[in-house]
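Let us work through a complete example step by step.
Step 1: write down the sequence.
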Amino acid sequence: MARYKATVDTPRPPAQVFAYLSDFTTAAEWDPGTVQSERLGEGPIGEGTEFRLVAVFLGRKTTLTYRIVEYQPPHAVTFRGENSTVVSLDRITFEPSDGGTRIVYDADLTLKGPLKLADPLLALAFNRVGDHALAGLRNTIGTQQTVS
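Step 2: predict the structure and record it as tokens.
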């Protein structure tokens, strides 16, 4: 399993940032590794809402279907993404901070089946992808980035 955790501070209020990031179609706006993102289905965004993202990872395009498995506006949203080779669990929390919001992005990526043997290499690549995504997020809505 690979894990990436980072913090972005933004002057924007928690409700605004939560609304933006809980709509995972915006991932293509701030994550340079996401080449396409679309919402599946209709109705208000909440637990059970699904998104399809096409990402470039290690030079290859891969499609993941994400489902919101936790939805607590404006405090936390968790997405579970999956395809035939990987499961991604992305939890984003939002806390008031200095008149704005502190966003904590915590993601776990787990390979399935025999691919689990490549987990140590996956962690290195996932950190690089995470750094690029958080830099994009910082440029889109934030002012500071901290990786932990």
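Step 3: interpret the result. The domain at 2-143 is CATH 3.30.530.20 (Alpha-D-Glucose-1,6-Bisphosphate; Chain A, domain 4).
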